[in-house]
Amino acid sequence: MSLHSLYTVAYLEVSEMQMNWMQELRRKHDPHYTVVDPHFTLAFAVRGVEQGVYLDHIATIASETRPISFHCKYAMLGADNIDDTAYVFLVPDEGYSDLSLLHDRLYRGVLEPFHRLEFPYIPHISIAGMKDFKRAKRLCDELNSRGVHVHGQLASITTGFLKDGKFCHVQTFELAA
Question: What CATH number is given to the structural domain containing 63?
């Protein structure tokens, strides 16, 4: 068994200007800014599967998946199932269904027992996290009034784990269909 809970994320291929904009927002508003770069999380905290079996499963799905274009035009108020933290999510218009379908495929086979169906999957890039829901909503409204435009491509997915406040990479798989 893996010693750590494994995650699978897709890092963003975006312009330097867009990345700098997101990172500046995250630096100001996201306590996890230093943990991991902007990404879409595709598989959450799986523990209890042999790491090699997990990686083989992710490799198979990646080899059957085309790169995904995305365009986030909306900042959405979000929450999680862990605590009372408010989040600001950038949610894609373009790429939403492709990301959701990839998430669903990842949770078939060996990962099916770990699929938390009680928490619907919303593809998103987290750019802020705070305890004040009203403040988070104001940030969403401010971003939406100015216009959100983060677009790019997802060409690979990366499996890793959290250790000492950092996301540690195990393996990256190209989306190769």
Answer: 3.90.1140.10
